[in-house]
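Q: I'm writing up a methods section and want to include an example of the input and output format. Could you take the sequence below and give the corresponding predicted C-alpha cells, formatted cleanly so I can copy it straight into the document?
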Amino acid sequence: MAAAGLSEREQAGCRQLLELLGTEELLALTDTITNRLVHPESRQEAITAILVYSQSVEELLKRRKVYRETIFKYLAVQGIAVPPSSEKHQLIAYVKQYWDGKLPSNGSESGERKTHAESTLLGERSVSGV
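A: Here is the clean output for your methods example:
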C-alpha cells in the first residue's frame, strides 16, 4: 500500500533514513504518526506504518524523533557533502533536493558511498592524528 503523500523515491529514501533510527525511536515515531492505532511487531512493520501514514516528507522529517544527526548521517552515507553546521531545516531541504534528483551525490554506487561515508564518519578522528 503506497502512501498518498510520498513518491516512490521519497518512500525509498525515507525507508533508508528510518533504518538509521533506533528501535525505540521507530516505535515512538509510529505511535505519534498513527495516533497509537498501529502496533508494529518489528522494525520493518514500524517503518512501513510510518511511511503509509506520513502525509509528506516535511511532516515526517520535522518530527522530533528524526534527529538532525540522523539526517546528516543519511546524507553522508548517500555521498552528499553538506556543511556540518547545517540546521535541521537545511538538511531537510538537501534531502528533498537529492530525492528530486537536483543534488548529485559524490559516489557512483550506493555500496561504495556507504563504505566510504561510514569509514569517513568512523575513522576521521584516528586518521587525522596520523
